[in-house]
Amino acid sequence: MRKTTAFAGLGLAAALVLTGCSATAEETAEEPMTSEENEVEEAPMIDTVNSDGSNLRAQLTALLADHVYLAGAAIDQALQDGGDLTTEQVGAAVAALDENSVEVAALVGSAYPDAEQPFLDSWRSHIPFFVNYTVAKATGDQAGVDQAVADLGGYAVSFGQLINSVVPELPAEAVQGELEMHAQTLLAAIDANIAGDPAYFGLLKEAASHMPMTAAALAGGIATNLELQ
């Protein structure tokens, strides 16, 4: 508990007694503190490092950043395997990505148990749209590309509505905007990967670096809703 103490200044009293041509200085006296000056003000200190709200934000940040890199790894593996989504390597990459989805949903469920499964079902549903985009882009199927982009846009809307129904403090449009940015940055990385552009790695990092903002928005709304510090 942080304490703030008000201290009174030290008053010095000096009296000169004149006796002819000589002078004698009296001893210095310290003025006593008044009751008001001696009061100790106490204010509660919030631990912003270890609070429930900050822990939620930190965990969401880590899991959502992992989501981007694991999605990038799964898509990259699918491209290396010529679009064959049934290979053992692709299967392992997809399994790791799905495990991450389960962890994100479990974190949300720790705050809202009834929302865990609906969140997981919704979150899982947007991942195939990135796969569809990748396959269509790699094969020159512009109609498939357009459909995947439209599907991702529709998902952003429905996900925003889902989150808002659980956490009214989070506007659906704000959540939608975060998901749209997620899609745009990850699609840019996918395009570079398909083209064999070395910029792919920087773009994937850029996509992941957006996740702290998404985590801050989600965690902030949840903290407000549940009155977490």
Explain the overall architecture:
- With 229 residues, the chain is mostly helical.
- It has two domains: 40 residues, no CATH class; 175 residues, no CATH class.
- The protein is globular.
Instruction: Give the H and E element order.
Output: EEEEHHHHHHH
Count of domains: 2
Gyration radius, rounded:
31 Å
Instruction: Give me the number of helical elements.
Output: 7
Q: What proportion strand?
A: 5-15%
Q: Level of helix content?
A: 55-70%
From the structure provided, what is the oligomeric state, counting identical versus distinct chains?
single chain
Give the strand line-up of the largest sheet: 1-4
Largest sheet at a glance? 2 strands, antiparallel
* End-to-end CA span: 16 Å
* C-alpha geometry: globular
Number of strands: 4
Mean pLDDT: 84
Secondary structure layout plus pairing:
Blueprint: E1 3-5, E2 16-19, E3 22-25, E4 40-42, H1 52-80, H2 88-111, H3 116-138, H4 142-166, H5 172-195, H6 199-209, H7 211-226
Antiparallel strand pairs: 1-4, 2-3
